[in-house]
Amino acid sequence: MRANLVLLPGDGIGPEIIDQAERVLVAVAEKFGHQFELERHLIGGIAIDETGDPLPQPTIDACRASAAVLLGAVGGPKWDDPNAKTRPEAGLLKIRKELGLFANLRPIQTYPELVDASPLRREIVEGTDILFVRELTGGIYFGPSGKGEVDGHESAYATMLYTVPEIERVVRLAAEAARGRRGKLCSVDKANVLEPSRLWRRVADRVVREEFPDLDYSVVLVDAMAMHLISRPRDFDVIVTSNLFGDILTDEASMLPGSLGMLPSASVGASGPGLFEPIHGSAPDIAGRGIANPLATILASAMMLKHSLQLHDEAAAIEAAVRKVLADGARTADIARGGASISTTAMGDRVLQALAS
Ligand code: IPM
Ligand code: MN
């Protein structure tokens, strides 16, 4: 197979972890006889520095023309001025919208070797395997917002707004995913307070009743879910929710397996290229020190091969290589629990060795 893939390293540790994922992609292409054209483009703070725009047009064009996009991370203190004209994060929000990536898949899986790195007790987290499906191009992130004056006071507002088709498509995608897993779907909202959540609940209930009656379906309020996630995470299979609730709950859930450094994510639309990235951010505090964990990005590249290129064996080979290096005891600092740790590049080396064996 020939495929054009776009790499967007971004900021902070982004370039370091993308380097390792690129090595893995090159090795997989060689091993399985594919040809991947890998092109790098600008996004985020570095794009602001170089072009004044967190998502320059050449990046958008290249992503549109690609089979899939692999992103490192965006943002950092350098671009944090609240009065700045634009921010790195705006580039990420715009690429999601431009590519129509309405669903963000965030699998939360525990690795037996890393369970003790979790802040929660082993007996609570062991065996946790959740797929979050977060709505990504609607809700309060993209609703009407602005600044003004209320009763003589400076004010600001953002609006949580959903249309029926926006809810239907993401619930359908989550329901399909549940069918391929343990058959359980949980929809999370705040229907006891928020009007858009009442619409969400009504639409989700109908879609599941009419089209997915075979699923074990439940609804949970978002505040209660925040609690259930850390008290009984094993009870959940697929969780579907709106943009803001998904943002918050997935950060919470990302602590279950012990390190953010292990978790990949996929953003997908109805058609066209998907965007794959680690869940973690640009980690400016450790950027440039060569100690970041590249495994989340390497696993994101596996998700990319699976979802966008239908290369299931290749993706499985990467996932197996990651499990092997963990089983062999290779640890970057974030998962070393004070024990010996290896560098970002050394972790890349270990994955390449495991792939070759
Ligand atoms: C995420 C991030 C982004 C979000 C930011 C960086 C715009 O937190 O992907 O979860 O809020 O969606
Ligand atoms: Mn987030």
Beta-strand portion reads 15-25%
* Structural class designation: alpha/beta
Query: In angstroms, what separates the terminal alpha carbons?
Result: 23 Å
* The CATH topology of the largest domain: Isopropylmalate Dehydrogenase
Number of strands: 12
Rg, Å, rounded? 20 Å
Please, what is the average pLDDT? Answer: 97
| Widest sheet, order of strands | 2-1-3-12-11-4-5-10-8-9
Largest sheet: 10 strands, mixed
Bound molecule types? 3-isopropylmalic acid, manganese (II) ion
Number of helices, counting only DSSP H or I runs of 4 residues or more? 12
- Approximately how much helix is present in the residues? 40-55%
Total domain count: 2
Question: Which H/E pattern describes the elements?
Answer: EHEHHEHEHEEEHEHEHEHEEHHH
Class of the largest domain, according to the CATH hierarchy? Alpha Beta
Look at the structure and name the CATH superfamily of the largest domain.
Isopropylmalate Dehydrogenase
Query: Segments where pLDDT lies below 50 for 5+ residues?
Result: none
- What global shape is seen? globular
CATH architecture of the largest domain: 3-Layer(aba) Sandwich
